[in-house]
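Weekend entry, working from home. Most of the wet-lab plans are on hold until the incubator is repaired, so I used the time to fold the two sequences that have been sitting in the queue since the last round of cloning. Logging both here for the record. First:
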Amino acid sequence: MGIEGSDDAAVYRLRSDMALVQSVDFFTPIVDEAYDWGRIAAANALSDIYAMGATPLLALQLVGWPRDDLPLDLLGEVLQGGAAVLELAGCLLAGGHSIDDREPKYGLSVTGIVHPDEIVANQGAQPGDVLVLTKAIGTGLISTGIKRDVVEVVHVTHAVASMAHLNAGAALAMREVGVSAATDVTGFGLLGHLSEMLGPQIGAEIDAAAVPLLEGAAELAAEDVVPGGTRSNLLYARGFTDFGDADEVTRLLLADAQTSGGLLMAVPPGRVDHMIEALRREQTPAAAIIGRFTDDNPGRIRVT
């Protein structure tokens, strides 16, 4: 599996019972605390591996740092945050590479393994499959609120906890129950990543009221504290989304550019109760039924 299907990671078969899964992700600071930035970046990079149904094995760090402008001790806090999350994931930190860069950047290249028969792709959903989401959305709005110093501390705390939470438990539940398809919700927002799960004969319907939201996100959207990436996502989503009576705040939330979001899964109807039970057992931040796949609006998303 390569770039053709816009999957979350590349997959290379090593032998009949093992395939290599690899992905990479890095970004500039989205929170004020260096340690938290490292935690979030690591959880975000690992998420692509979990979304494919794989187990992470090792990671290499990617660092850009303005060494003449910011102390290396601060970089040390970033690396400690990343290392803490990797240890929690049981993923080996095996080195990395750094460059002198005017703007700080941090992330990871992660390698994992999966049985070829157990790969979870982002396509394969069937009409009637139920959409289940494992984290609340709104991190892009919260991060912009942090940059503009207009977000409440308690809302930052909840957002950081969500972004730093590993999708390992969600992946365990996904493997236990079995799904038709899955992806993780990151930079393209909920609508953008859901669109990658559609096909010429399958569409989706989202119940906007059922989508879990981070505290404070809707208020920030209403106050026009909106990142550029979210606005670009919404512009793109208008091409394949029927928003109906959804107001502008709802549209922005559904298109909000996420960092380290949850898994979005297509669950066969007969397995939904088992999935919700498994997710709650794994203590995922959310276990929300937000919609379903349909065959009456192929290639499109309908918001109700």
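Second, folded right after the first finished:
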Amino acid sequence: MSRPGWRFGLRALTTGALLACLLWQIDLGAVARQLHDLRYPWLLAALALTVPQVVISAWRWRLTARCMGLTLSMGAAIREYYLATFLNQVLPGGVLGDANRAWRHARSDVHTAAAWHAVFIERFSGQLSLALVTVVAFWQSPSLVQGIAARIAAAELATPWGMAVVAALVLLASLGIVLVWRYTRAANAIASFANNLWRSLLARRVWPAQFASSLAVVSSYTGVFLLCAPAIGLSTPASTLLWLIPPVLLAMALPLSIAGWGLRESAAAVVWSLAGLPAHEGVALSLCYGAVVLVSSLPGAVVLGCSSGVRSARGASSMNANTRK
């Protein structure tokens, strides 16, 4: 099996295993009942919120690239970000769309390594902000912390849910290491990467804009989740949900499944259970969120279709020119 095929098989297996665990632990009837009567105005509001989310993300990428001296227009950044989002949804791992975004940008700029660095640093900025928000979420959610402490005190970490908690914590702890290893391994020089990291993320004139834009993006992710709650008829107060969502978002950022499916739902089930809430509600909310994100990425399919059409037209023109010769 080829290397891409091996990776796809592993992530598909991970997704299937996680979903199978959910089938074993969760009352699917309760999940289905929760999703039975959807409130479409709330879903449309959630979809609408994904538009500024992509625009702000594209602006952050453009800011990062321009700090490195790269050329990237706002229109191109939005178009490429939609394409990357769509590919992340339909391809395994959740990062291949970003790899394609970096590759397409590198083709149009002489600074190839910097184009790859820009995508990684832009994503890292977002994940760093999400990690900080998750820390705050644990601090602001006593029920979640008490749930973890109670499970440890009761020695429930030997149960399937307890093992899921341990696995989630290990995966979250390894997220930064995995991402850094994955991207810096391919860099031409670590010194060049460090220089670009400083110029585009850590410099005094840049980091406030990076942090503000990343925080806005994380807020939009959380907002979509919150809008999905009334869409499926959840009665849990938004003030409670607000601090349960960041750990779920951080878990789905791990490039171990297909578009975060399985990881997101498993994390939601664990987090809701630890907070003393019905696990099936967390799973239903996560499924609704995943469906909204998938639909919101469809403009990227249009970009992909247009790009394929342009390449086909160029290929046909080249063949006709060769025939005339």
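Plan for Monday: verify the second prediction. The radius of gyration is 21 Å.
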